[in-house]
């Protein structure tokens, strides 16, 4: 897993609420047996029409917006638990997703893959969308250490929450399996007592 | 101290607490399927390790399989490769596989319960959000991502933050023609698709207790559609008699011992939940969705919201996709497809209900009606009861088990712009195929729509 520290970047806004993982990566692309290459089909049904032509209205097809921060509406990543959604977003080149609310499984999946979900207040989200709308070159700074997200060049800033353990993992590029494998003795001790065996 | 059922089971499974971090939770049963496992197996290979407890892991192929001619090689090359990769991985890592052609094959959330692998008091995970289905047996079951599948493979544990608890109580007697699918669609329409986020739900109350196991599974299945981590129902005599003598249920003395334990699995009367909702069964009529998330549901006789120009941007976008008008009724709306299947409603009880309704009737000519049994065992049982013949006479096609048109991944899809009344759990844009328009409903409402060719209040077709 890649390490995460601080990121300053312009943003790509998708101001819809309830973006589900079927929109992020439609099921028909889940036939792969590796993790790579899903970025090509990120938001496929919004990005391309039924003939496969780029849909000029969709934000990923506009030159106006680019960057490593995806800014989305409330309740991002709801629906299916497919981790492919997090892989697709990361594979496309995003490092951070900002939303005023994330679905649980998506949040976990993102963190397990080095993609940082930054949950902000509705007010902050609105200000951010407004700022990007007014100036597509608006940058945000995401600082994992201080757990803050700031609109660069303004005093608009907010703290976000992240579990201290996950923060530690993300900063060091460790994953959960490394941790669990180092504790197998405890698992075996647990098993010998369990009634469910 | 008084505890909820959730807390009792959870606390029993905590192996370790990480300071300021998640807990290490032990997993009793791990189900896997072809779509979310290959990258996890690849991760094990990269680390040079095996599956820690293969005997607690069960695999099947369901998402990406055809529902006709399953004896022939899968036509789509990518799908075939994915299913073959599962076969290879299970062989290499010593995992039991109920693959295509096996008498136990089926949708992972249908076969676990019917084989008695799913039991009260357990922790159960699967790389699929509808793992919540198993919670109907009074256990903690939830969907996980592929990295977490790899965690469970490697250590039989998973790192989790303990969710908050929610109680949803439904009391009273259901009206005729109203099924558990209607209860759950009703609840989601009330608390919204985000209403359960961060919570684990216990469903209770007299209306829930009166339900069969199949009907309870439908409710727990869709708890994830409220955003919840999962849903559960305390085990009772209905649970125990369902499990007794199932293939992998405990036997003899072991049964007595487990049964005694299972009977203790109840929320203490004084226990506190973080949130509670109460609903009345009498308020629920057959439900149907009009929009593009499962919370956009209405009673079958009600009108779509957003008439008089009051639609939010989200609602407008949904209605545009569905090509429906706010303020109008769905009753009488012409439909093109009916899909009866998925881990929500593809069990033998669902098929019996449908067969009862369609017996001696004929489906409307323009409707394409697919019925996909949840498992080989359901298919075999349906044939043994003559349900296949009743369905065929009514013009319904009983196919072979799999996820089918629940998700637009395998061969079964709903074409662009077509309306499909579906017993599955998700009506997202493109879920049943690019441009497909899904309306979620119960098996009875779906079957009634197939017979008439338009959205129908099934209560008009059945006797009180
Ligand atoms: S039937 Fe549908 S919801 Fe259920 S496991 Fe299969 S794809 Fe998922």
UniProtKB/TrEMBL annotation, chain A:
EC number of this enzyme: 4.2.1.33
The protein's annotated pathway: Amino-acid biosynthesis; L-leucine biosynthesis; L-leucine from 3-methyl-2-oxobutanoate: step 2/4
Keywords: Amino-acid biosynthesis, Branched-chain amino acid biosynthesis, Leucine biosynthesis, Lyase
Cellular-component GO terms for this entry: 3-isopropylmalate dehydratase complex
MF (Gene Ontology): 3-isopropylmalate dehydratase activity
CDD domains, A to Z: IPMI_Swivel
EC class (word): lyase
An individual GO BP term: L-leucine biosynthetic process
Keyword RNA-binding belongs to the record: no
Gene3D superfamilies xrefs: Aconitase, domain 4
Domain Aconitase A/isopropylmalate dehydratase small subunit swivel: 1-122
Catalytic activity as recorded in UniProt: (2R,3S)-3-isopropylmalate = (2S)-2-isopropylmalate
Keyword Transmembrane among UniProt keywords: no
NCBIfam families: leuD (TIGR00171), PRK01641.1 (NF002458)
HAMAP family: LeuD_type1
Protein task: Catalyzes the isomerization between 2-isopropylmalate and 3-isopropylmalate, via the formation of 2-isopropylmaleate.
Protein family membership: Belongs to the LeuD family. LeuD type 1 subfamily.
Quaternary structure note: Heterodimer of LeuC and LeuD.
Protein name according to UniProt: 3-isopropylmalate dehydratase small subunit
Annotated source species: Fulvivirga sediminis
Gene symbol of the encoding locus: leuD
UniProtKB/TrEMBL annotation, chain B:
Cofactor(s) of this protein: [4Fe-4S] cluster
Protein residues bound to [4Fe-4S] cluster: 343, 403, 406
Top-level taxon: Bacteria
Keywords of the record: 4Fe-4S, Amino-acid biosynthesis, Branched-chain amino acid biosynthesis, Iron, Iron-sulfur, Leucine biosynthesis, Lyase, Metal-binding
GO MF annotation, one: 4 iron, 4 sulfur cluster binding
EC number: 4.2.1.33
A GO biological-process term: L-leucine biosynthetic process
Pathway assigned to this chain's UniProt record: Amino-acid biosynthesis; L-leucine biosynthesis; L-leucine from 3-methyl-2-oxobutanoate: step 2/4
Keyword match Amino-acid biosynthesis: yes
Catalytic reaction(s) noted: (2R,3S)-3-isopropylmalate = (2S)-2-isopropylmalate
Details of cofactor binding: Binds 1 [4Fe-4S] cluster per subunit.
One Pfam family linked to the record: Aconitase
Gene3D superfamilies: Aconitase, domain 3
Alphabetical list of InterPro entries matching this protein: 3-IsopropMal_deHydase_lsu, Acnase/IPM_dHydase_lsu_aba_1/3, Acoase/IPM_deHydtase_lsu_aba, Aconitase_4Fe-4S_BS, Aconitase_4Fe-4S_dom, IPM_dehydratase_rel_enz, IPMI_cat
Limits of the Aconitase/3-isopropylmalate dehydratase large subunit alpha/beta/alpha domain: 7-453
Family: Belongs to the aconitase/IPM isomerase family. LeuC type 1 subfamily.
Subunit and interaction comment: Heterodimer of LeuC and LeuD.
HAMAP family named among the record's database cross-references: LeuC_type1 (MF_01026)
Described function: Catalyzes the isomerization between 2-isopropylmalate and 3-isopropylmalate, via the formation of 2-isopropylmaleate.
Protein's name in the database: 3-isopropylmalate dehydratase large subunit
């Amino acid at each position: 897993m890649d390490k995460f520290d601080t990121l300053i970047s312009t943003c790509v806004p998708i101001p819809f609420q309830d973006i589900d993982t079927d929109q992020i990566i439609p099921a028909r692309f889940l036939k792969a047996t590796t993790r790579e290459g899903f970025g090509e089909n990120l938001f496929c049904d919004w990005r391309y029409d039924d003939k496969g032509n780029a849909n000029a209205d969709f934000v990923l097809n506009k030159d106006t917006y680019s960057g490593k921060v995806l800014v989305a509406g409330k309740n991002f990543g709801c629906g299916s638990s497919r981790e492919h959604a997090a892989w697709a977003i990361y594979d496309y080149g995003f490092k951070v997703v900002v939303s005023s609310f994330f679905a649980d499984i998506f949040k976990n999946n993102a963190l397990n893959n080095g993609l940082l979900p930054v949950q902000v207040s509705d007010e902050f989200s609105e200000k951010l969308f407004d700022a990007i709308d007014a100036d597509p070159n608006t940058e945000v700074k995401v600082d994992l250490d201080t757990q803050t997200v700031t609109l660069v060049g303004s005093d608009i800033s907010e703290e976000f929450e992240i579990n201290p353990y996950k923060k530690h993992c993300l900063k060091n590029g460790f994953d959960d399996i490394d941790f669990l494998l180092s504790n197998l003795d405890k698992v075996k001790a647990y098993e010998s007592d369990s009634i469910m065996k | 101290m008084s505890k909820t059922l959730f807390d009792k089971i959870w606390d029993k499974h905590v192996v370790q607490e990480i300071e300021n971090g998640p807990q290490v939770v032990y997993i009793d049963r791990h189900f896997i399927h072809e779509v979310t496992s290959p990258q996890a197996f690849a991760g094990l290979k990269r680390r040079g390790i095996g599956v820690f407890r293969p005997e607690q892991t069960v695999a099947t192929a369901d998402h990406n399989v055809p529902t006709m001619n399953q004896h022939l090689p899968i036509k789509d090359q990518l799908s075939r490769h994915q299913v073959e990769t599962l076969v290879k991985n299970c062989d290499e890592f010593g995992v039991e596989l109920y693959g295509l052609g096996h008498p136990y094959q089926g949708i992972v959330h249908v076969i676990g319960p019917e084989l008695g692998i799913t039991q009260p008091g357990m922790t159960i995970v699967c790389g699929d959000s509808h793992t919540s289905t198993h919670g109907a047996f009074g256990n903690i079951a939830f969907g996980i991502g592929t990295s977490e599948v790899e965690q469970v493979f490697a250590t039989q544990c998973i790192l989790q933050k303990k969710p908050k608890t929610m109680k949803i109580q439904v009391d009273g007697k259901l009206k005729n023609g109203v099924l558990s699918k209607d209860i759950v669609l009703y609840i989601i329409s009330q608390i919204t698709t985000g209403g359960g986020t961060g919570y684990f739900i216990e469903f209770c109350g007299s209306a829930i207790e009166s339900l069969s196991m199949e009907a309870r599974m439908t409710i727990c299945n869709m708890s994830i559609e409220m955003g919840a981590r999962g849903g559960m129902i305390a085990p009772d005599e209905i649970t125990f008699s369902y499990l007794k003598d199932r293939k992998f249920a405990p036997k003899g003395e072991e049964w007595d011992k487990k049964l005694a334990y299972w009977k203790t699995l109840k929320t203490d009367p004084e226990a506190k939940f973080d949130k509670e909702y109460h609903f009345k069964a009498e308020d629920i009529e057959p439900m149907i969705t009009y929009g593009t998330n499962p919370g956009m549901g209405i009673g079958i006789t009600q009108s779509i919201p957003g008439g008089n120009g009051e639609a939010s941007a989200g609602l407008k976008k949904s209605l545009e996709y569905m090509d429906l008008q706010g303020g109008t009724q769905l009753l009488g709306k012409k439909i093109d497809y009916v899909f009866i299947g998925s881990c929500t409603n593809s069990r033998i009880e669902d098929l019996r209900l449908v067969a009862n309704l369609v017996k001696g009737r004929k489906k409307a000519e323009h409707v394409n009606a697919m019925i996909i049994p949840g498992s080989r065992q359901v298919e075999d049982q349906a044939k043994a009861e003559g349900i296949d013949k009743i369905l065929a006479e009514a013009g319904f096609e009983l196919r072979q088990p799999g996820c089918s048109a629940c998700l637009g991944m395998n061969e079964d899809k709903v074409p662009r712009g077509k309306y499909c009344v579906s017993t599955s759990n998700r009506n997202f844009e493109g879920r049943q195929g690019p441009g497909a328009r899904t309306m979620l409903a119960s098996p009875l409402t779906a079957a009634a729509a197939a017979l008439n060719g338009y959205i129908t209040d099934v209560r008009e077709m059945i006797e009180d």
